[in-house]
Specification:
The structure is a single chain. This protein has a domain of about 190 residues: Rossmann fold. The protein is built from ten helices and eleven strands. The strands form two sheets. The chain has a six-stranded mixed beta sheet with strand order 7-8-9-4-10-11, sandwiched between helices. Strands 1-6-5-2-3 form a five-stranded antiparallel beta sheet, with helices on one face. Strand 8, helix 7 and strand 9 form a beta-alpha-beta unit. Helix 3 packs parallel to helix 6. The chain is globular and about 45 Å long. The protein binds adenosine-5'-triphosphate (ATP) and magnesium ion (MG). Adenosine-5'-triphosphate binds next to helix 1.
């Protein structure tokens, strides 16, 4: 009798070139469930440690949190791990240590798609819209998990960003940088999130458009949606931040209210250009 479970003689019979005991190299992320967690900040990534694949740790005991309805901002030099921290909170990174909790639930074991119904929406730094689809189709895509009427939310998004209504039948790829960012934010809002996570929403836009986008983000926060964002325009972002984090090499370097960080001589000298 052959010990070949397939009994059909297929495949390579030379055991010397196979690894019978091996488990392969593909990372396996066992998906778990949400668990009740105690009281605390509305959203927190606590003591997050981890990196990409089997590579070195990018995040080192990094903690980011935001209270309900507030705006938290992450700043820091290029390569500090700001985007990685956002990805970790959204479940796109295998954490080797730490946990992520939202609204009293431990969601560390959840996949990104399972975090959306928990109220999280994430606008990544790049590739955050479907360029060949129209503006309106992009917004509809944002709502694809919803089974209820999305027209009210779409009206709210058009109310927030009137230019998108004018351009709703235009391919999103034909829009200006600032308008594209509005599409990306609008698409995220279509999920009716409790917390909106934005990675550099003002990247590549003019100072005037940046101010406008910040005003719209404040409006979203006033509507009760918690905001966690990464910003390259550190000074302006900290001015609107309830809480600010300076990350350096994947670790918390400075934490405080936006005003505290803006007033801190060391933060000013090192990160805000004096
Ligand atoms: N997909 C990836 N695979 C492997 N390493 C990555 C990946 N993405 C980022 N890194 C590495 O992780 C580190 C932190 O990158 P990250 O993008 O989080 O920084 P950042 O603070 O967002 O920088 P920036 O201000 O340029 O956006 C860098 O050393 C980067 O090379
Ligand atoms: Mg980044």
């Amino acid at each position: 009798m052959s010990d070949n479970p397939y009994q059909d003689g297929r495949g390579n019979k030379d055991a010397s070139i196979t690894n019978r005991a091996g488990m392969g190299q593909i990372e396996y992320r066992p998906e778990g469930e949400a668990r009740p967690a105690g009281p605390g900040p509305f959203l927190i990534g606590e003591a997050m440690t981890g990196g990409y694949g089997t590579g070195a740790n990018i995040l080192n005991d990094c903690t980011i949190s935001v209270e309900k309805g507030e705006i938290a901002v992450i700043v820091g030099p290029n390569g500090a791990g700001k985007s990685t921290a956002m990805k970790a909170i959204f479940g796109m990174l295998n954490l080797r240590g730490g946990s992520v909790r939202i609204d009293g639930e431990d969601i560390t074991a959840l996949s990104p798609q399972a975090r959306v119904p928990k109220g999280m929406a994430f606008v990544p730094q790049t590739s955050n819209i479907f360029t060949s689809m129209t503006v309106e189709e992009n917004l509809e895509m944002g709502a694809f998990l919803r089974r209820d009427d999305i027209s009210t939310t779409m009206e709210q998004v058009y109310g927030l960003f009137p230019i998108l209504r004018d351009k709703r039948q235009q391919a999103a790829g034909e829009l200006s940088g600032g308008q594209r960012q509005q599409v990306a934010v609008g698409r995220a809002l279509m999920t009716q999130p409790k917390v909106l996570m934005l990675d550099e929403p003002t990247a590549g836009v003019s100072p005037i458009v940046m101010d406008e986008l910040f005003d719209r983000i404040i409006e979203v926060a006033r509507a009760g949606i918690t905001i966690l964002m990464v910003e390259q325009n550190a000074r302006q972002a900290l001015e609107i931040a309830d809480k600010g984090y300076v990350l350096v090499q994947g670790a918390n370097a400075f934490t405080g209210t936006g005003a505290e960080l803006l007033a801190d001589p060391e933060v000013r000298r090192t990160f805000l250009g004096g």
